[in-house]
Design goal:
four-stranded antiparallel sheet; 18 helices; elongated; differentiation; SKP1/BTB/POZ_sf; nucleus; developmental protein
């Protein structure tokens, strides 16, 4: 039989266990178990980091140094055992080079991107686990890391670059990524430019973009166009003006009037506009860029066609072939009953689709159409209640041009949406992928349902469209030779 004191203690403990319905363990029952767990549980004690000690003592203070490195007028007291982490020094010390047994090495720096600060970071990275890389220094550090064959530091530079792409860094990052073989960074920069070139136009960016880079952007089906193809031409005109007059200093709002005035003056001075600017000595270097304009979607709008004729930038031969091509396409749509694309032809979509876009500043109801003659297909786009709807308008609403009354018309399209942060980085995006939609007269169709949880305004919408099918001709038959097929 248990002693009264033990029975009393047990009853008290059980009472406490049941208090408020909680099952608690009696301290007197768990003391021995807790003591064992306490002895086996590791405790963190904050000690001075070994990495920090090594960095301070060996690198910064140079204690027990067995080799000195001279470069760019500065000296570093270092240690061979740490330098051998670098592929550059590992080869130097293990081969039959004259530097193998030297204690003082004069390091030649052939890359102008490398400075003493970059070498300090690169050498220091051999003595520590973490490296602080500032965006202003990342290219010079990358250059030093590439020369010294420090793969880990190269990777850290790449990650830092991808996180800090902006209007101020994108061009220099893209160039550096190409120079030092960071393909993922190069791809990220190109992606940033495709999204931001038209949506967030910037004078400094226009000035900095090279002709080869602009060619790559303008030719891409992924270019996020705002409004219509005519706006791509206008952006190119601004860019070309800044390449010709790099000293110009003004705002984005002033840029287009200044560019128009400059080209107007040139047109008057060059044989009263008999020679297009792109055919002149000054303009011929820009031909590869302008060749990728989709002129068929510019001349389909009367106002735009008149501006193109007025500017005198595009050669007449280019325009003549496009006018002829569009004329035959219109005849096929009207007389050959071309109802539009029958299947997804990705190559055709990428090379010849109409590129257009729109900015929605805030949530609400929107309805719009993109200007131009689209072969009798009056397409209305509606955004309402987080839905995007396409409608083929024939009789319901007024239209500025003629409309096709064919019972059914097909359209090939790709719809993309994106929102950006302050640096131009995409924070949310959606795409419909390439699709074909068949619409009867005045029929509407929901093409995207947006999740409100991931929808951020302002919202940018970009579309690729094909209203007609590629021409298929029997072998041996074709259009006149003067028409570009």
């Amino acid at each position: 039989m248990r002693p009264p004191r033990a029975q009393e203690h047990e009853a008290t403990c059980r009472c406490r266990k049941r208090k408020r319905g909680l099952e608690l363990q009696c301290p007197c029952e768990s003391d021995s178990e807790d003591d064992g767990e306490l002895l086996d549980t590791p405790r963190r004690k904050k000690l001075k980091s070994t990495s920090k000690y090594i960095y301070q003592t060996l690198f910064l203070n140079g204690e027990n140094s067995d080799i000195k490195i001279h470069a760019l007028g500065q000296e570093w007291s270092l240690h061979k055992i740490y330098l051998c982490q670098s592929g550059y020094f590992s080869s130097m010390f293990s081969g039959s080079w004259k530097e193998t047994n030297m204690t003082v090495i004069e390091l030649e720096i052939p890359d102008h991107n490398i400075d003493t600060e970059a070498l300090q970071v690169a050498f220091g990275s051999l003595y520590r686990d973490d490296v602080l890389i500032k965006p202003s220094q990342v290219i010079s550090i990358l250059a030093a890391a590439s020369m010294l064959q420090l793969d880990g530091l190269i990777q850290q530079c790449g990650e830092a670059m991808k996180e800090t792409i902006s209007v101020k860094t994108v061009c220099s990052y893209h160039t550096a990524a190409g120079t030092y073989g960071l393909d993922t960074v190069k791809k990220k920069c190109l992606e940033w430019l495709l999204y931001n070139l038209m949506t967030h136009q910037n004078v400094d960016l226009f000035r900095e973009l090279s002709a080869s880079m602009m060619t790559q952007l303008i030719s891409s089906h992924d270019l996020f166009v705002m409004q219509v193809e005519m706006d791509v031409y206008t952006a190119l005109k601004k860019w070309m003006f800044l390449q010709l007059v790099p000293s110009w200093n003004g705002s984005l709002k002033q840029l287009l009037p200044e560019a128009d005035a400059w080209f107007s003056k040139h047109m008057k001075e060059s044989n009263q506009g008999q020679v297009a600017f792109l055919e002149s000595e000054q303009g011929c270097i820009f031909v590869p860029v302008f060749k990728h304009l989709r002129l068929q979607y510019i001349i389909s709008d009367l106002v735009s066609a008149r501006i193109i004729e007025r500017d005198g930038v595009i050669p007449r031969e280019w325009l003549s072939s496009v006018y002829k091509l569009q004329w035959f396409t219109m005849l096929r749509a009207e007389q050959d009953n071309d109802t539009g694309p029958q299947e997804i032809n990705k190559e055709e979509m990428e090379l010849n689709s109409m590129r257009c876009g729109r900015k929605l500043s805030k949530d609400g109801d929107y309805c719009w159409r993109w200007t131009g003659f689209n072969f009798g297909f009056d397409l209305l786009i509606t955004y309402t209640n987080r839905y995007i709807i396409f409608k083929r308008n024939t009789l319901n609403q007024p239209c500025c041009g003629c409309v096709s009354l064919q019972p059914r018309r097909n359209i090939a399209f790709r719809l993309r949406l994106a929102s950006f942060d302050n640096s131009g980085k995409v924070i949310c995006s959606r795409t419909s992928g390439y699709q074909i939609l068949t619409l009867e007269k005045d029929q509407e169709q929901m093409v995207m349902n947006l999740d409100s949880r991931v929808l951020i305004f302002p919202l940018y919408i970009c579309c690729n469209f094909l209203y007609t099918s590629p021409e298929r001709r029997p072998e041996g038959e074709g259009l006149p030779e003067t028409v570009d097929s």
